[in-house]
């Protein structure tokens, strides 16, 4: 599929940002390994994983994923991870308004200091916890629209919309034409 004269193997650096506990590491684990581990460990500093998907016939996209720690004490390190990133995935937890506020902080930070033209996706995770929802879908949609971001709600637990998140990002990236 990704061989032959017309084959294109694209790659992009992707950084995950957001409050501690929103599910960033679980999203990555679900996407890369197809697993959900409810006892997963807190990320220290940052971790790196990669995953390749097919974009179209004979075109693949390799995501080089930097999963950052949300703790305040690592905030100063964040620019190391988002610098040069083509994509920033900013995650909040739909049961936590505080995490939604933190997501908005990251959006502003990236608008000021991120690579020009960085593609930003806003992700409301833990969509399986509908009965505990405190951030309305429309609030996510409105904020994303105002800031020119792609928006999706996911569940790393049920796998709902996890692959779609990365597929939609791949489709929206400004790939070189040759
Ligand atoms: P991170 O700090 O943003 O990397 O968050 P983690 O990926 O470590 O997840 C924090 C906690 O949230 C863990 O206990 C996970 O099991 C839980 N979690 C992550 N994603 C989901 C989800 O989609 N639904 C539910 N119900 N729990 C989740
Ligand atoms: Mg983590």
From TrEMBL:
Keywords: Nucleotide-binding. This is Ras-related protein RABF1. PROSITE patterns: RAB, RAS, RHO. The keyword Nucleotide-binding applies. GO terms for molecular function: GTP binding; GTPase activity. It comes from the Eukaryota. Pfam families: Ras. SMART domains: RAB, RAS, RHO.
